[in-house]
Automatic annotation (TrEMBL):
This is Sec-independent protein translocase protein TatC. NCBIfam families: tatC. Forms a complex with TatA. The chain crosses the membrane at residues 20-41, 61-88, 100-127, 147-176, 188-205, 211-230. The gene is tatC. Keywords: Cell membrane, Membrane, Protein transport, Translocation, Transmembrane, Transmembrane helix, Transport. It comes from Alkalicoccus halolimnae. It is a multi-pass membrane protein. Belongs to the TatC family.
């Protein structure tokens, strides 16, 4: 086996190791979350003035699995980011390693912030709006499956998309993107944001707007943060 093939095998072995750690963390967090899933369910439904219905016995376990999976994903985010960083670390300079290491705790904060924004701000506004539309016309009754699908669509996308500034800063730090390029392609980014927002939000105008506005703000914030990282990178390169 030549040197190139050995390097490929080493990289694949390292990737397998990182994936195993990520899966192990997720499974461990899932088990813990599932143990307390009833308490989590009670907390998520405490503000609903009705008992959620189920249409079959399998719905119960599927709902519990969905809740536990989301909670475990949130708990595993720092480990996922750390394993990604450890995998790409050999290809980074010392300065890039130091700069990117700070992204690990930030990723957890942003993920949690996205969940909180979706759950405490977007979800109540959209839910109240949709219930108002049917007030006096329809008898409101939620199935647990449909309700938690709605909750997930109003929270998880924000948790993922709130990582945008972090991803942009990291890609800027390693020279993959530039603030000038992001500014130049802003109209295409806005178009993509609209498409994503329509896809992840319920089919009404208010929901689309409530998703589009914070995503545009995140994109603009990402450009501003990218400028800071880009200036530091250029300064470091010039000093070398």
């Amino acid at each position: 086996m030549n040197q190139e093939n050995m390097e490929i095998v080493d990289h694949l072995d390292e990737l397998r190791k990182r994936i195993i750690i990520i899966l192990g963390t997720f499974i461990g967090a899932f088990i813990i979350s599932f143990i307390f899933v009833q308490d989590i369910y009670d907390w998520l439904t405490k503000d609903i003035d009705m008992v959620l219905a189920v249409l079959g016995p399998l719905d119960i376990i599927l709902i519990y699995f969905s809740i536990a999976a989301v909670i475990s994903l949130g708990l595993a985010v720092p480990v996922i980011v750390l394993q990604i960083w450890l995998f790409v670390k050999p290809g980074l300079t010392v300065e890039e390693q130091k700069a990117s290491l700070m992204y690990i705790p930030a990723s957890f904060i942003l993920f949690g912030g996205g969940l909180a924004f979706g759950y405490f701000i977007v979800l109540p506004l959209v839910l109240d709006f949709l219930l108002t539309l049917g007030e006096g016309t329809f008898e409101t009754m939620f199935t647990a499956d449909r309700y938690f699908q709605f909750v997930l669509r109003m929270t998880v996308p924000f948790a993922v998309l709130f990582e945008m500034p972090l991803v942009v800063m990291f890609l800027t730090a390693i020279g993959v993107v530039t603030p000038q390029g992001m500014h130049k392609n802003r109209k295409y980014a806005y178009f993509g944001i609209v498409i994503v927002s329509v896809f992840v939000s319920p089919p009404d105008f208010l929901s689309d707007v409530l998703v589009i506005i914070p995503l545009i703000f995140l994109y603009e914030a990402s450009i501003s943060l990218a400028r800071i990282v880009y200036k530091r990178r250029i300064k470091r390169i010039n000093s070398e």
